[in-house]
Write a structure and sequence with these properties.
single chain; about 190 residues; alpha/beta; fumarase; five-stranded mixed barrel; 6 helices; 7 strands; about 30% helix; globular
């Protein structure tokens, strides 16, 4: 059974999620990769207003390909998340509640997720064309000069993801490794 989430996320919704849960996200999420994250953190450090409200926000680590005629957005598969690890704790401190990408997160980011009650979700890599069908509207809202790495406001419908790290410090990747070792060593 998939859990329906509405973005922006609430603490109540996040508190019910466990590593391994399958979710469908509806609402507004934002695209941002490492170059955009650097710009956002610099804006926070300079006490400037961000191009979107971080309170409850979900950021999808993606740099979509150009859309073809008639498409809302091009292929948009997740990028490797560790490149955002240096920036994520400060963004969570300011209200970021969800991150979507692929791959493991650092211990510092996992600790920040526990402290600030945020979750990390994985989208299926290699399925960018399929994921783009869940995006109903796309609008560049900041850093247009970054091209595909510009921040976009995305309206999503039933965007599929899996909870990798929950607010309790659970890590689906680590649990999977332990389960595999138990099977192979028994």
């Amino acid at each position: 059974m998939k859990i329906k989430l509405t973005a922006p996320l609430t603490d109540e919704a996040i508190s019910k999620l466990k590593a391994g849960d399958s979710v469908l996200i509806n609402g507004i999420i934002y695209s941002a990769r490492d170059a955009a994250h650097k710009c956002l953190v610099e804006m926070l450090q300079q006490k400037k207003t961000l191009p979107f409200d971080l309170s409850g926000a979900v950021v999808y680590y993606v740099g979509p390909s150009p859309e073809k005629p008639g498409q809302v957005i091009g292929s948009c598969g997740p990028t490797t998340s560790y490149r955002m690890d240096a920036y994520s704790p400060l963004l969570m401190e300011h209200g970021l509640k969800g991150m979507i990408g692929k791959g493991k997160r650092s211990k510092e980011v996992i600790e920040a997720m526990k402290k600030y009650k945020a979750v990390y979700l994985a989208a299926t890599g290699g399925a960018g064309a399929l994921l783009s069908k869940c995006i109903k509207k796309s609008e560049i809202i900041a850093f247009e000069e970054l091209g595909p790495e510009a921040v976009r406001r995305l309206e999503v419908e039933n965007f599929p993801a899996i909870v990798i790290n929950d607010i309790f410090g659970n890590d689906l990747y680590e649990e999977g490794i332990k389960g595999y070792r138990k099977i192979t060593l028994d």
